[in-house]
Amino acid sequence: MEPQSQDLKTAPFLTLGRFHISEDYGFLLPNPLKELPDHYRPWMEIANRLPHLIGSHQLRAQVNEMPLLNCQFLTGYREQRLAHLVLTFMTMGYVWQDGEAQPKEVLPRTLALPLVEVSRNLGLPPILLHSDVVLANWATRNPGRPLEIRNLDPIVLFPGGESLRGFILVTVLVEKAAVPGIKALVQAVNAVLLPSPDSLLQALQQLRLSIQDITRALGQMHDYVDPDIFYAVIRIFFSGWKDNPAMPAGLLYEGVSKEPLHYSGASAAQSTVLHAFDEFLGVRHSKESADFLHRMRDYMPPSHRAFIEEIHSAPSLRDHILSSGNSQLLTAYNQCVEALAALRSYHLAMVTKYLITAAPKAKGRKTSHLPGPPQALEERGTGGTAVVRFLKSVRDKTIEAILHQSV
Questions:
Q1: Are 32 and 138 in contact (CB under 8 A)?
Q2: Which DSSP symbol is given to 72?
């Protein structure tokens, strides 16, 4: 139930509006709603108390007593997105409330039926996604002030306190930092079509700056997110039931399917930003990495997925630059690729800190207020991939995209 769009093939030039991408917020949902209509108060009452209900092991009992509500009173796209956010947060809490040793393998119909209905309306899978955790999960305290941590709050939370708040909001700021890069990408695609070397050069320079800003924004994780809390408390709630040894059979959605369903957990690989940059710059990943990344596109809002496809079908930037013989364009292109490789190296170092280094510390902690660390997903991302090997591969393949001037 995304906003209606015109036939994507009729417009000769690329625009963000055709894909419901905001000029101000990029892939972030502009000004997400914080409240649903009164009919859905039972959902919101649980969602607003989620950290307490999970921490006190009361969430499952609350969900089991929840009335079955029809989605017909949800009007408009933003209400649908908030409903998906609320229902998927409740779902993850319900499944993982007692840790990975005792996951719930059946989702009750009072949660499963509306979740699947709203997911179908949105063209999204019925599980927590990057588009829930980040894109639709932010609100400004003062709308007139800039988007920065102290002026932002998440709408729905799990246990994890300030570290979870920081994780969500830093990722919101990463998406915001990408906005000039997304706009530059559109300008560049159109500059190739015209062609306009000056406009293309300017766009490539802006794209490089934006990628560097993304890296700086990501660096705020170190200030706001405790690695031990992230590893031992937060991470399990982003874990799915595909490629997860803790739930090999998948999750049965009661009243929806007689067989359990398998879905990957929320992952940074579900962010449209780097997919779009890769397609534009012509970065080609290994088959294993490419297969995983393409599967993650099924976990994006359909219009964002369509945007990536549009970039993919545009004339090749690499071919254009090589055939132009323009050394300034070649240098600017290579600077974009180098900035993207640096971003991926930085992300790799961060994942090593928050995942690999945190794991033995969590295992060695005998007595603590923190729940046991998720053993089944050790050294794997919440999307189910062997994360370090994957991140090294995508970084190395990015470096391989650097162009060399033919003599």
A1: yes
A2: G
